[in-house]
Amino acid sequence: MAAADAMAALEAKALADGIGGVRKGLFVEASWPSTELRRFFETLPAESGLNLNPWMTFTKGDIERARFLNMRPGKILRETDADYDAMRAHIDGLPWLGGEPPFRCRLPTALTLSAIELNANQFGVVGHWSAEYIVPVQVRELIEAAELSSCEFRPVTNRKTGRPFDEFAQLYTDHLLAGRVIDVTSPEIQSANPAERGYDLLGCFCFSPDTLNAATDFNRVGESTISFEFGDWIVSQAVRELMVAEGIKGLRFEPVLESGTEEYAAYMQLWTDFLTAVPDNCTIRGKSAVEICP
């Protein structure tokens, strides 16, 4: 009964906060820190279990104050099976860059698609499995005119014709950022397959100030954070400001934290408090979603 009472209190608090509630008796949304959620964790029966999907909420100010940001896709470009096979053959022949697994990645340079559906002001990422962006020529020209560092454009092959698309190009950089901070928000991924081991990303990327001082406008994480093979994109505030000013769509930005700062200390305290409260019979699922508040 204690757990049921705690769930009822949690649902009431969530609804009062305007962030949702129990759906069909299976799901509940709640904020943290939360007395109600902590009480629910404390009363959860040992034989019960939960899947938790934490997400972080940032204000516009949080995004604007960050020196660097994790650039994430909002527009997915579909590929056919034949497209995928062609790209897979290319990727399998590429060398690994960086160090030992998982601190290494591959950087595709020859993308192949049968069709590309992008507006003139959109970024798109190839499939749900890659981190490779395609941009229309209008976006390419904006980036080139801004003279942003460590950015190249590679042709994208039209599989139907065998020739490059005239109106689209692949965004490319080979500037790698190694040594992200591994902390409580990056639990080790256990797998029987050595190629699928590494460190998760429940929260934000964090690097030392020295590492970010050496970063360029466009960077890739030197770690297989996407599909155990590709590195996320880390970009400067100048990149975000250009995209916002020009109304470019198909992207989301999360702040990259810097170790030794007050922001990182507060972030660590929040996550440590939350993870300490989570019972052992709960599972935290993958990369957290992100919400940007006005």
Polypeptide structure, described:
The protein has helices at residues 2-17, 35-43, 60-65, 81-92, 137-146, 209-213, 237-245, 262-277; strands spanning 50-52, 56-58, 68-73, 76-77, 97-98, 104-105, 111-113, 124-126, 133-136, 152-158, 164-172, 176-177, 188-189, 198-199, 206-207, 218-221, 233-236, 251-255, 257-258, 282-284, 290-292. The protein is α/β, with parallel strands linked by helices. It folds into 2 domains: 1-48, no CATH class; 61-258, no CATH class. A 6-stranded mixed sheet has the order 4-8-9-11-10-7. The chain has a 5-stranded mixed sheet with strand order 12-16-17-3-18. Helix 1 (2-17) runs antiparallel to helix 2 (35-43). It is globular. Mean pLDDT is 89; it is low at 19-25.
Physical arrangement of strands within the biggest beta sheet: 4-8-9-11-10-7
What's the helix count?
Answer: 8
Share of helical residues: 25-40%
Beta-strand percent range: 15-25%
- Low-confidence segments: 19-25
Major sheet details: 6 strands, mixed
Q: Terminal Cα separation, in Å?
A: 39 Å
Oligomer state equals: single chain
Radius of gyration: 21 Å
Salient structural properties:
294 residues, 21 strands, globular
